[in-house]
Amino acid sequence: MSITIKDVARVANVSPSTVSRVISNNSRISEETKKRVKKAMKQLGYHPNFQARSLVVKSTETVGIVMPFSASTVLQDPFFPEVIRGISVKAKENRYGMYLSTGGSEDEIFEEVTRVVQGRRVDGLILLYSRTDDKVMKYLLDVGFPFTVIGRPYVGAERITFVDNDNIYITKQVTDYLIQLGHSKIAFVGIDMDFVLSIDRIEGYKQALHEAGIEFREDYIIQKSYLKGEKSAITAFLTSPDAPTALVVTDDFLALELFSHLEALNIRIPEDISIISFNNYFMAEHSKPLLTSVDIDIFQLGYEAANCLIEKIKNPESLPKRITIPAKMIERKSCSSFL
Amino acid sequence: MSITIKDVARVANVSPSTVSRVISNNSRISEETKKRVKKAMKQLGYHPNFQARSLVVKSTETVGIVMPFSASTVLQDPFFPEVIRGISVKAKENRYGMYLSTGGSEDEIFEEVTRVVQGRRVDGLILLYSRTDDKVMKYLLDVGFPFTVIGRPYVGAERITFVDNDNIYITKQVTDYLIQLGHSKIAFVGIDMDFVLSIDRIEGYKQALHEAGIEFREDYIIQKSYLKGEKSAITAFLTSPDAPTALVVTDDFLALELFSHLEALNIRIPEDISIISFNNYFMAEHSKPLLTSVDIDIFQLGYEAANCLIEKIKNPESLPKRITIPAKMIERKSCSSFL
């Protein structure tokens, strides 16, 4: 019941092999014939068998998306649906599909990526993160498979096309904002030094402190893993005599968890402690108090990464480049001056 | 530099055609030989070329996910990442990949689905929604392509495997809860009658009213499209002398938008108006007041839909079935008694 090349050939009044050549975009076929064959294909609702055709034109018309760790935890973070949303719009503009690559650990991700690449399941890959020690990135560079990265590659950034915010600059701005409100005991919460993102943000934070003549304190850097551990530890930190009066938090999700925690401790926001965060998720506009947050334009990060990847797929000789997506602090009600 | 069938053949000490037969799972090859070839493949890190192999074994080891309308709007709703999360866990257990199908309109979705099916880009499809008039579902039934649905198919439910909550029952429970709090002016907000979900929920809502002897009022059914329109219309509805004292809202997202709207009108929740909603998103635990919501177990909806689909792919003769995922009201602070 499905339509074959022979049906198309009959309607277009050409040989089946001519139809095949049109499908594989053979340059020896005249424009006139191409037009006629394509018209027949459309008329009959014929779609070339995707897998057979992929072998010929070596294209899957699919972009692969590589997520950090398992999709099962990652998709709980609103960053990922939003970045996929950006990718999807660009993919759709170019009639590309999307393949989601998942793995439960670094090793599983690596194994899955090699399988996807060697099996040519996709035409190229977008890495949604950048780690300091990234096997996947090294592998993709080695085999010369098209890819782009969201985030700054830790090594080889000159040879890799990537899309990122200016994380040093925006974090410096955010810290400056708290300093200008009179804070000097400012902690940075939710760090994961395996990711280049954290390294860059810490750098911006340090620059702001340095310029203001405030000493950097290691004990004011709170790891993400620490927050996920014993509640008593974070309680001790927030209630110690030397507790910070302001927090820079790596994402709104964590910030809202801190909101709940602080409420239970009867510590008021922003009267007792100021909080500023990143990502500007929907809930930042619906929390009490409303959360001051940095809009990093997640959608655009995804859109541009897909744009660069498709460009690279279509023209493998295109040069590596860095695209910077502007980030902007959205001032709401979670920070106040410290007198 | 990539490893070929010839390399595997050499290491396993068999002919290349034997390796091909092992890859295509030919039953004429002895278990002993299969084992030896597989060991050599593993040792060399050989992955059969996916597209070439698909032609032989007719499998892509990929499940396709069909979203309603464009991914660009849909992914803003936390339902979709969470349901994909459920699918991803099951897919991963079976070493399946995921392909996201997107379309900007009903026609575009239909076109994309036919392309995916005819091109055999995936082994089966999961529809994340059920419409009253669904061309896609009819098409998939016609061509006999494996698929499962999240939601109740409007027609042909006996011939289709689907996963759903008992929407009539849970909505009746929710409405009963408000009636027991003393409310009789209860509106249902966020309806879209194109989706079977809305039809079932309205049915449960009506049953509760009917049992309690409360008359059903058409003007208490507020369409989703209405909420997206003029703010003045919804303001008029909420402030009229005949305004409802309680709202059942189709999802937490809408509910929180109503929270903001009501706050601007100085209508207090729950003192002046009670609100109960569906989906139990993360933000329901962080709103003020905390939002009473129905946990429909979105993750499990996705997980079971993937489970049924993979079962169907592996055994095309498996019988159509309905799986019901339990839903549960999570009582928080957004409802109070009406005296």
TrEMBL record, chains A, B:
SMART domains: HTH_LACI
GO molecular function: DNA-binding transcription factor activity; transcription cis-regulatory region binding
Annotated Gene3D superfamilies: 3.40.50.2300, lambda repressor-like DNA-binding domains (1.10.260.40)
PROSITE patterns: HTH_LACI_1 (PS00356), HTH_LACI_2 (PS50932)
The protein's name: LacI family DNA-binding transcriptional regulator
Keywords per UniProt: DNA-binding, Transcription, Transcription regulation
Organism superkingdom: Bacteria
HTH lacI-type domain: residues covered: 3-57
Pfam families assigned to the protein according to its UniProt record, in alphabetical order: LacI, Peripla_BP_3
InterPro entries membership: HTH_LacI, LacI/GalR-like_sensor, Lambda_DNA-bd_dom_sf, Peripla_BP_I
